[in-house]
Amino acid sequence: MTKAERRELQERQRATKAAAKASGPSTPATKPGATPTAKGTTQSLASAAKKSGKTADGKPVKGEQEDTSHLHTHAQVDDTTRGLRIFSHFGLPKSPSVTKGDVHPAIIRVGLQFSDFKITGANARCIAMLTAFKAVIQGYVTPPNNTLSRHLMTHLSPQINHLVLARPMSVTMGNAIRQLKLEISGSDIDLPEQDAKNALCTKIDNYIRDRIIIADQVIQETAGKKIKDGDVILTYARSSVVEKVLLRAWEDDKRFSVIIVDSRPMLEGKALLKALTAVSIPCTYLLLPSLPSVLPHATTLFVGAHSIHANGAVFSRAGTATVAMMAKAHNVPVVVCCETYKWSETVRWDSFSKNELGNLSVLCPLYDLTPPSYITAVVTEVGVIPPSSMSSIPAALGRTIGT
Amino acid sequence: MAATTEATTKDVFDIWTTYQSILKDEEISTPLAAILALTELVQRSDAGTMFELVKALNDGAKVLNERTPNPISLNAGCELFIAFVTLFPHDSDSFSDLKKELVRQGQQYANEALTYRQKIARLALEFIKDDSVILTHSYSRVVMKTLLCAHERKRISVYVTEARPRGLGLRTYEELTAAGIPCTVVLDSAVAYAMNKIDFVLVGSEAVVESGGLINAVGSNQIAIIAKAANVPFYALAESYKFHRLFPLSQYDLPTHRPNILSFPLMAAPTPCRKHPVPLKEQPITAEERNASTLTSSQTRYMTQEQIARNPDVDYTRSRHNL
């Protein structure tokens, strides 16, 4: 069998399996879904959370719960499952086993906010997660015959799993957790428990302060230098960092105008529009298909990032790659504003191998990858870096932290 | 307070004249002169703490920047020295000892830096084959040294662009010819015409920037683009103190970019065309006038100083990755 034939067979087997699961009896808490859902999961999540923090399922089972399920013919379900097969490798969660230990209410709340897309954005999700972790740590009691430095991580694991089930982990959350693990294992054994817990909470606060808040301030200054009076700044969707850069540049009495490009279904650009017009920055708002008509007027494109990679690629909200490529074609410099804690040592060449699906009725991956050739510069808190030098960020970081 | 301001004014005044006098030595380039001038500032400074010293250095650098015609390469030198001072381990007991050490290191660096061009020339020799035809742009000391060094061992011939408006290419022509190297001056606009006769291009640099690109005399970018289109290698020679933390996003994102560059002159009320003050039909053109107008059309015209001022002195050549 050729590779293509083998793949076809695999797909067919997977489709029949999924269809079999769909038609079979199932309860929300025990069935793994084809993909994690965004909308309509509040109800099922809440009930699931009561049980033990397991997530709701993908489309086939969701169809069963709703009243309209009987309207879905087998063929229709088959069609949609086949259509989703293209991204089905994104979110096939492992069958959630019984969670060892309870999930802290703070984590449950954050999980709900994630899955409802009430908290979006790499920075916001990381800060929300770390803040919830502080509550977990404060509520933690070291079991007898054990040490905090060894056991706390085991205690945190189910909490982390719960968040991952709500929405796949972002690179920022992953990096923060890695740093937290390091701090926990380095925790002084002789410290009284409350002191150790307070020390960890301080470390978390410092991480947020240094790697996000202060980093953003440095980026505001550095990127602000690239904004001059009369510029027309183009931006896409809503990056918390770009918003800060624009507001700060306006505060510094630079007089420019902004074009916000937005796209469905998230329409996050509306929130940015609100924030900028609140301080009277002249803004134009349009959807992605209208981009070519405004590109000749743009001076610079500023975008944010979910993560930046060792090969110079930028992983960001779906649509960013399109905007960046078009901008480059029109000789508009593409500037990515990104803190160093978003750096991932992985190498990414496409948006395909790892992504997340949003709304399921339309094929809607949440992220895409902008190749390094379309990026002019990346502004981080350690300096302005060309994409070809992205792999040197850890070294640059080490130097600034060392001094 | 008054004493310090006096001292600083004296320093401020000194730094520019010091810098100028250092520059009189032909061998010393602007960043090195800046480093030496700042070293002298450290020597004369009465700062008591590192903070004061760095502040004084920054003020001095600012003065130099404001008064120099080409701030980019000067700034590279200033930033290099100030970063060196800031990162210098200052746990010695006596601050004046520290200052002496800084001065010593600054002067030692400048002395060593004078050997850089020689080192670069030796390294560049590997790229120069016998019978090479080389194109260079304007006048660059490091390229001169390299070409003269190559001439001692190999046969080379050199095309050099005129590099208007300053015409520094002609200086290159004079020096190469005096050394016995066959050399021809090429019009800036004839580079594309000549490119297929050229083995490789060799230019100097004002600064190498963070994006991996090059800042050099205006015309370098054009030559680089033509070379790339013709698959001719383009080499740039740069001493390490020319590396700058600038990151230009475009040609116009350079600190040397003045608002009047490539600006259009303000037009007054439309004036009638001066060549034909009276409609031709009504006045017969005399033979004199006819000759005069043909003379004017074939006569060489030159740009006025005002027109030249609307043009840039340097341009930004992107690295291969950023095209």
From TrEMBL, chain A:
Residues 27-42 have a biased composition (Low complexity). Residues 1-75 are annotated as: Disordered. Keywords: Cytoplasm, Initiation factor, Protein biosynthesis. Residues 1-14, 54-75 have a biased composition (Basic and acidic residues). It is found in: Cytoplasm, Cytosol. One of its GO terms (cellular component) is cytosol. GO terms for molecular function: translation initiation factor activity. PANTHER family: TRANSLATION INITIATION FACTOR EIF-2B (PTHR10233), TRANSLATION INITIATION FACTOR EIF-2B SUBUNIT DELTA (PTHR10233:SF14). Belongs to the eIF-2B alpha/beta/delta subunits family. Component of the translation initiation factor 2B (eIF2B) complex which is a heterodecamer of two sets of five different subunits: alpha, beta, gamma, delta and epsilon. Subunits alpha, beta and delta comprise a regulatory subcomplex and subunits epsilon and gamma comprise a catalytic subcomplex. Within the complex, the hexameric regulatory complex resides at the center, with the two heterodimeric catalytic subcomplexes bound on opposite sides. This is Translation initiation factor eIF2B subunit delta. It comes from Pisolithus tinctorius Marx 270.
UniProtKB/TrEMBL annotation, chain B:
The keyword tRNA processing does not apply. GO terms for molecular function: guanyl-nucleotide exchange factor activity; translation initiation factor activity. Residues 312-323 have a biased composition (Basic and acidic residues). The keyword Nucleotide-binding does not apply. It comes from Pisolithus tinctorius Marx 270. Belongs to the eIF-2B alpha/beta/delta subunits family. This is Translation initiation factor eIF2B subunit alpha. Transmembrane segments: none annotated. One of its GO terms (cellular component) is eukaryotic translation initiation factor 2B complex. Its main location: cytoplasm. InterPro entries: eIF2B_alpha/beta/delta, elF-2B_alpha_N, IF-2B-related, IF_2B-like_C, NagB/RpiA_transferase-like. Residues 304-323 are annotated as: Disordered. Component of the translation initiation factor 2B (eIF2B) complex which is a heterodecamer of two sets of five different subunits: alpha, beta, gamma, delta and epsilon. Subunits alpha, beta and delta comprise a regulatory subcomplex and subunits epsilon and gamma comprise a catalytic subcomplex. Within the complex, the hexameric regulatory complex resides at the center, with the two heterodimeric catalytic subcomplexes bound on opposite sides. It is found in: Cytoplasm, Cytosol. Keywords: Cytoplasm, Initiation factor, Protein biosynthesis. It comes from the Eukaryota.
